[in-house]
Amino acid sequence: MKKILILGGKGFVGRFLALCVKEQGGEPLVYDLGQSEDELLSFYGQADFVIDAHGLNRSEDSFEFFRVNVDQTIRYASMAKEQKIPYLFLSSIQAGNGTPYGESKLRAEEELEKLGDKAIRYVRLSNVFGPTCRPGYNSVIATWADAAARRKTDEIALNLSSRDRVLPLLHVGDLAEIVVSMLMGSGLDGIQASVDKAVWNVPLESVWKLFIHLASLDQETDPLVGLSSLGIAASVLERLYGTFLFALKEPLVLVPDNHTDARGSFSELMKGGFGGECQVSWNTVNPRFEKGGHYHHHKIERFSFMGPKMRLSLESCLQAEYWSSSVVTDRLCSYDIPPFVCHSFRNEGAETQGVVIWCSEKFDPSDSDTYGR
What are phi and psi of 203, to 5 degrees? Predict the structure, then answer.
């Protein structure tokens, strides 16, 4: 079993790296602020590989950028070189852009090259986003997703000068999968090209329209209606919508349009999607049985429960303080479940019950994007 030391392992990117290491059969050694020097030295003594995900994104003190992003980075890399441990530094496409942050990243890269060790590498990342990203700190996606979750359309601002800008986006789950898969397998040759392949170039104005749309929702409005008109690729829409759902910190409940007469009823459970790749399935659950118990990296599922006494249990893989809940249905309703939230449902009634499941992707047995707890 490979042991991977993740510096900054409790931060936004670090926690996804740790999760992926466990998923792929390794052992993550997580080090972050507040942990002792002795613990750091112990981890270096055990590690087969070091991923440096620590860093400072925002500060009013430009000196802090260089202290954290340069001095600390060189210290960590030098320790890896001394102990002959391969080391990967997560840099940024902002390196060298003239800002204190960008200049600190560029300086770190230059100092790493001076160490003259082929086992010490860096990769530049493009606008990483996804669940748990911090508003006002990690990315504009984090800021807009948080504002949309709070229904604050006035906080989703786009400058006129930025309307034609194209934004390169990299989903944190995709990044973690790529990096961990490579170091668990053949190594990091071609790491930059592999990461770049996972980047989408998206019109910023289209992303802005998406979050304005999501911020204006109510329980009678299906958030998936009209998304295809935004001109954003289905895979990116899926990941952006998943980021928004996670930012809600609790299930998004949808009350469908229900038509009833003497013959029975007809309910419009879902009307939209991310393109032609979605899948709808019918699931039955016998009394006192439970199904599920897994989570996804980017798939989104909508569970539409046909009757009462179905217990939906949710647990976040990333933030224990959110998405830890259990609800029993008392009516026809739907729940949208974001990525990285483990979900299961149990029939607590006396009769077999049905669940309609919409998934944002068709099932692919060779890449199921499904992970058990």
Answer: -60, 125
261-308 pLDDT, tens digit per residue, is 787 677 777 777 787 678 888 889 999 999 999 999 999 999 998 878
pLDDT in tens, 158-184: 998 888 999 999 999 999 999 999 999
Confidence of residue 22 (pLDDT cuts 50, 70, 90): very high
Q: Which residues contact 197 (CB under 8 A, 6 or more apart)?
A: none
Contact at 8 Å (CB) between 15 and 318? yes
Nearest-CA neighbor of 257 among 343, 184, 334? 334
Separation between Cα atoms, residue 141 and residue 147, nearest integer Å: 10
Four-point Cα dihedral 279, 132, 136, 30, nearest 10 = -140
* Amino acid, single-letter form, for residue 318: L
pLDDT digits (tens, 9 = 90+) for 28-87: 999 999 999 999 999 999 999 999 999 999 888 889 999 999 999 999 999 999 999 999
Tokens of 56: 């400072």
The residue length of the chain stands at 373
- What sign for the dihedral angle of Cα 206, 218, 142, 297? negative
| DSSP for residue 155 | G
Rounded to whole angstroms, what are the CA distances from 363 to 181, 338, 358?
22, 17, 11
- 77 Ramachandran zone, left/alpha/beta (phi>0; psi -120 to 50): alpha
Full-model pTM = 0.91
pLDDT tens digit sequence for 135-146 = 988 789 999 999
Q: How far is the C-alpha of 256 from the C-alpha of 220, rounded, in Å? A: 6
Q: How high is the pLDDT of residue 244?
A: 97
Q: Please check whether residue 348 is in contact with residue 273, taking contact to mean a CB–CB distance below 8 angstroms.
A: no
Buried b (16+ CB within 10 A) or exposed e, 314-346: bbbbbeeebbeeeeebeebbbbbbbbbbbbbbb
Distance between CA atoms of residues 3 and 327, nearest Å: 38
> Which one, of 198, 218, 213, lies nearest residue 145 by Cα?
213
